[in-house]
Amino acid sequence: FFLKGIILEYVEGGESKTRSIDLLDLRPDTDVTALVEEIQKGEPLITDSCMEHVIHLVQRLQEKLGEKENHRFSLFKVLRTHMLPLTNVAFNKSGSRFITGSYDRTCKLWDTASGEELHTLEGHKNVVYAISFNNPYGDKIATGSFDKTCRLWSTETGKCYHTFRGHNAEIVCLSFNPQSTLVATGSMDTTAKLWDIEKGKEVATLSGHSAEVIALSFNTTGDRIITGSFDHTVAVWDVGTGRMLHTLVGHRGEISSAQFNWDCSLIVTGSMDKTCMLWNALTGTRIATLTGHRNEVLDVCFDYAGQRIATASADGSARVYNAETKQCIAKLEGHEHEISKVCFNPKGSCILTASSDKTARLWDATTGHCLQILEGHTDEIFSCAFNYNGDTIITGSKDNSCRIW
């Protein structure tokens, strides 16, 4: 289950399928048993035998919602991670470990609590640019490099399982599917590829873009993937067949980021054309254009419930939009330079931004009020992330250090 929702996995006619159930009405005072009984009426998959389990999950979810926010983060550690600049940082689900990619051609695995380096993943012949854990499991790491290869590693041993070869140019983005059976890579060669983690083989090449693929994202059920390109379009692909289902056409500049919402019904895209667009994921039609930024939109994301959208821009501001009404509900103003990254905390109550003004900021997602400025980096911050509990933050900077808050 996710925050504000449950994903049911079931087998039908020998095929494994998934369905998501929204719990957006869940509040700290909701009668959980009554809520689950109500859901059961319309959901044949929830049988009497698994009722107790579902009730238990929803109760845990409710406890999370009821926890009091403690908004103050303090600096916990500064890690001088690599000799050359960092490219990316990423947490495993719990936040107990994180990884850093670097121009020094390595990816390093760190223990968050001790700040100790656990492994250096060596083997790439050029910049390690894109990195990821296979969350929620966290037992594997994928690295994508300017050497045109992607490598799959064991988190425990640091050994390389597979080297995926096939791209003709730099790999700049990658992602595991939610089931952790595939890894997707996007490349400057205009294609994305899907690779089988077990077999170490290429499963599909997603061809159709006329320029670099710089963003990709699976939906929560793992049956669709989107790719965003410098050709101004986003393509929606069927993961099983590798077939292109839709091309989202409308932006007038390069795509900077693209993401599905939690129930897989919407796609949000950000572009250098200063706008963000909302699309129907099933039909590929545009629902709305979210305007207001005075410069390029560099990052977009949904909150976990898919209710709100946050955008980060080169104009130094971030914005929050209501996905339902398409209205701008908050402007996050205070950074002195461009904001390259934006993300919600898991609860959706708070937003984190990373800026080239050397600070990261925390904001109230409802009011847009700045809650805290995370200071201390001596160069621009290009990466920031929460752990799953929302109580630890990592920031990565061009000053070659990571800070844990």
TrEMBL record:
Assign the protein's first listed, main location to one coarse class. cytoplasm
Q: Name one GO cellular component term.
A: U4/U6 x U5 tri-snRNP complex
Name a Pfam family for this protein.
WD40
Which ranges does the UniProt record give for the WD repeats? 79-120, 121-163, 164-205, 206-247, 248-289, 290-331, 332-373, 374-405
Q: Which UniProt keywords apply?
A: Cell projection, Cilium, Cytoplasm, Cytoskeleton, Flagellum, Repeat, WD repeat
Among the record's GO biological process terms, what is one? axonemal dynein complex assembly
Q: Which CDD domains match?
A: WD40 (cd00200)
Q: Which InterPro entries match?
A: Quino_amine_DH_bsu, WD40/YVTN_repeat-like_dom_sf, WD40_PAC1, WD40_repeat_CS, WD40_repeat_dom_sf, WD40_rpt
Instruction: Give start-end of the signal peptide.
Output: none
**What does the record give under GO molecular function?**
U4 snRNA binding; U6 snRNA binding
Localization (cell): Cytoplasm, Cytoskeleton, Flagellum axoneme; Cytoplasm, Cytoskeleton, Flagellum basal body
Q: Please report the name of this protein according to its UniProt entry.
A: Dynein assembly factor with WD repeat domains 1
Classification lineage? Eukaryota, Metazoa, Chordata, Craniata, Vertebrata
